């Protein structure tokens, strides 16, 4: 009976020592949080293991996240997953459909996320600037080419038909002008200037005859010249030659003679005015956007989602490298309170830690049992 008491005592003491030792070891992982000093000397094993090695732990966790958990290959695999892509398209379509039926305007919606209050003016200026930039880029690329290469065939054919009409128009306008009072006055001025520059004798004859009589004789002749078919053929020929010569000039040479900047600015202004930018931005979305719903939701959103996914997958390694996620994790872990880390670890591993305590008690009891048996036999 005495032997059994010895064995029972040994088992109980061993179990107590094993359980308390493991429990103390678990608590020493976290506690104490700070070094403990006695008589100016720091006690060993203070602070606990995790508080003491928090910086190293943070660095290792950062490496573990970037090298093993959140890797570019893993995220790319997720982005290429068919189910993930389908879910993203479905989510984007639902969000875009909701957006198109909002009661607020597009300007108000954008202002919510950008904070800009002059979105309409900014949009119009952006359209105007984009049109100007595209026109300048196009013009720069065509500067060495002759004008003929830039004109569509329809315009060239149209210009050929308009040259004859232009010749008739010029002669008719000249004929009408010559018969007006202003035309007669201008013709008289030309005659007087002509006589002044022809010497004293011609000037004397002119003064005897009178410039009015010269104009009266010259005006019918000028009208006959303007009405003659030969004159029409000659003017048409000259216009056609000038037009052909103009077509063979490089754009750069024509650019020097034309107010290109003013023309481009005018085109940009008219283009901006024709586009309903202000209407699209200021009117409620549900008044005009739903008519584009089918095309936006079923065509553009899937295309944009696929394009965004491909671009993100291609650039993901650079993005992750730029984000320095290991530093982010390291800094976050370093800012954690040790008590928070303790609570987090214990919450996750409480059952395992309890089993470790029981295991220590079981091993201690086993060792105590062996010791008790040895003591009994020795006694």
UniProtKB/TrEMBL annotation:
InterPro entries: DUF445. The chain crosses the membrane at residues 6-30, 358-378. The keyword Transmembrane applies. It is found in: Endomembrane system. It comes from the Bacteria. Keywords: Membrane, Transmembrane, Transmembrane helix. GO terms for cellular component: endomembrane system. Belongs to the UPF0754 family. This is Uncharacterized membrane protein YheB (UPF0754 family). It comes from Salsuginibacillus halophilus. The lineage of its organism: Bacteria, Bacillati, Bacillota, Bacilli, Bacillales.
């Amino acid at each position: 009976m005495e032997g059994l008491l010895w064995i029972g005592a040994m088992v109980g003491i061993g179990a107590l020592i094993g359980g308390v030792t493991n429990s103390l070891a678990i608590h020493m992982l976290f506690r104490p949080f700070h070094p403990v000093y006695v008589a100016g000397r720091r006690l060993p094993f203070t602070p606990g293991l995790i508080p003491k090695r928090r910086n190293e732990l943070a660095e290792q966790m950062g490496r573990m996240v970037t090298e093993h958990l959140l890797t570019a290959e893993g995220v790319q695999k997720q982005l290429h997953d068919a189910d993930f892509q389908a879910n993203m398209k479905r989510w984007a379509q639902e969000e875009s459909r909701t957006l198109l039926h909002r009661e607020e305007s597009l300007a108000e919606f954008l202002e919510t996320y950008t904070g800009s209050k002059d979105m309409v003016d900014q949009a119009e200026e952006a359209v105007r600037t984009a049109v100007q930039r595209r026109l300048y880029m196009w013009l720069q690329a065509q500067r060495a080419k002759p004008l003929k290469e830039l004109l569509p065939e329809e315009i060239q054919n149209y210009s050929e038909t308009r040259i004859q009409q232009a010749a008739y128009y010029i002669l008719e306008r000249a004929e009408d002008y010559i018969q007006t009072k202003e035309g007669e006055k201008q013709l008289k001025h030309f005659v007087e200037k002509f006589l002044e520059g022809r010497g004293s004798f011609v000037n004397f004859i002119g003064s005897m005859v009178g410039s009015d009589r010269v104009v009266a004789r010259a005006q019918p002749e000028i009208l006959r010249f303007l009405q003659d078919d030969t004159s029409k053929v000659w003017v048409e020929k000259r216009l056609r030659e000038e037009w052909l010569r103009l077509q063979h000039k490089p754009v750069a040479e024509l650019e020097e003679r034309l107010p290109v900047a003013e023309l481009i600015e005018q085109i940009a202004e008219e283009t901006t005015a024709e586009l309903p930018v202000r209407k699209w931005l200021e009117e409620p979305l549900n008044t005009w956007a739903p008519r584009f719903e089918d095309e936006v939701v079923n065509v553009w959103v899937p295309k944009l989602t696929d394009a965004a996914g491909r671009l993100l997958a291609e650039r993901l390694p650079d993005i992750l490298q730029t984000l320095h996620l290991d530093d982010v994790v390291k800094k976050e872990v370093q800012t954690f309170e040790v008590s928070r880390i303790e609570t987090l670890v214990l919450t996750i591993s409480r059952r395992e830690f309890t089993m470790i305590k029981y295991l220590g008690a079981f091993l201690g009891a086993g060792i105590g049992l062996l010791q008790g048996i040895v003591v009994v036999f020795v006694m």
